[in-house]
Amino acid sequence: MSEHLLEFRRNILDSVSPSFCAAKWYNASIHLGHGYTHSCHLPLPHEINKEELESNPSAIHNTEHKKKQRKMMLEGDRPSECEYCWKIEDIKRDNISDRVFKSRIYKIDDIAVLPKQSWDADVNLKTLELSFDRICNFACSYCNAGYSTTWANDLKSFGPYQYFKTEGGGQYQHDGKSFEPYGKFNVGNPYIEAFFRWWPNLSKDLQELRFTGGEPVMSNNFWRLMDIVKTQELEHMALAVNSNMGMKKSLLDKLIELTNSLNVKMFDLYTSNESLGAHAEYIRDGMVYEQWRKNLVHFIENAKFRSVTIMMTINSLCLFSVTEFMDDMLTLKKKYGHNRPHIDLNILRWPSFMSPINLPDHLKKYCHEKLSTWYLKNKSNPLLVDFERAQIERLLDYIDTVNQAHKRASTDDEKLWHDFKSFYHQYDLRRGKDFTQTWPKVLVDWYNTIEIDTTIKRIQFVKLEKDFFNTEK
């Protein structure tokens, strides 16, 4: 493990408290379409109190919930919503969790002021991931209608997915209508208007603004903000876009043109993939792998940017070609540079039946050995940087040690495997796919042993559709 990461954790974060993370103050993901936020992508989102926004637009970030979590961290308590980091750190004492990666991007002086101020103070963000709406041309298997209009169309056309024994199936039984309370075009959306009122002040301190979705470049409000940004001198701010890179060439060229017209410090592109070829197209419905790769190369060769990062959502299926995918990305690194692209491995936890740790033992062993062999061969490759090595090592430890995807997840293997088969069987029928023809024999042989119980009634989706996205207080 890289010593400088461990030194940062010990000397900077743990000197405040053993649970301290600067992301609770300086980082946020905010979903303006339906008014939810979280301090990073790991805790579930919680609702923004829109009543506060008229007098304090920064309340789209400085929520009462976040302030209570900050207080816990200053006092050395572990917020339960941050369980992902605690799981990683508890595997081994010196493991590096995301609270290190997400805090070390800030200046030491900016971190040092946090324990000196009141826990309930309003703070300006330094890094923000922002979503205006859920418009998206993909319907990735582990996504849902709350974040993709294409997913919503699936459920409107065929109805809810059925026959689940665990909580994970709940996200496939709602059409996400509650995520568009102000309609497709967000007319009168108070969260969006609060953001635009906050922007003149926020933009003074913001180090990075990162757009996500849906597919952000398909959002009118994205381009509305870009028209404002193009008039500003923002040399202190980096701008980034999370794009599935499956858009039409005209929209891709518009994005490339944007990168060459901004007065910002730098531009970064984030795109998502974690497996190769037909495997990627199966997991990320709507993707054509060769087109995705072609668009990626077109961007690298023509845009003005600092780096490209591939966000790899590590699910159980991708493990069967993740090493081949990383080989393909190393080919691009060799041609264009180590940061064109970076790879960033994030371990999927929801829905739990898609988690890599919920494969049967013989398949976990198979995938672990495959990845271990690849890493042993590539560990010293100069094209890999420290955080990429750290994340691969973390994944290997995770597969080997962790036995529950998240604190709400079932630990009943038979139920999880049932839901795995039930989901992909229905997914195939709706999307015109074929699990048994796509995946390797070692996986298909196990898959074929699972029987689906079609007598199960639709599971209750907690209280309301939005409750799936609430954290436990």
Outline the low-pLDDT stretches: 460-473
Overall geometric form: globular
Q: Helices and strands: which structural class? A: alpha/beta
The percentage helix is 40-55%
Distance between the termini: 33 Å
* Overall radius of gyration: 22 Å
CATH class category label of the largest domain: Alpha Beta
Short summary:
With 473 residues, this protein is of the alpha/beta class.
Description of the molecule:
The protein has 473 residues and is an alpha/beta fold. It folds into 2 domains: 3-129, no CATH class; 130-469, pyruvate-formate lyase- activating enzyme (Alpha-Beta Horseshoe). It is built from 18 helices and 11 strands. Helix 10 links the parallel strand 7 (234-242) and strand 8 (264-272). Helix 14 (361-378) runs antiparallel to helix 15. The longest helix has 19 residues, at 413-431.
Give short descriptive properties of this protein:
single chain; 41% helix; disordered C terminus; two-stranded antiparallel sheet; pyruvate-formate lyase- activating enzyme; alpha/beta; globular; nine-stranded mixed sheet; 18 helices; 12% strand; 473 residues
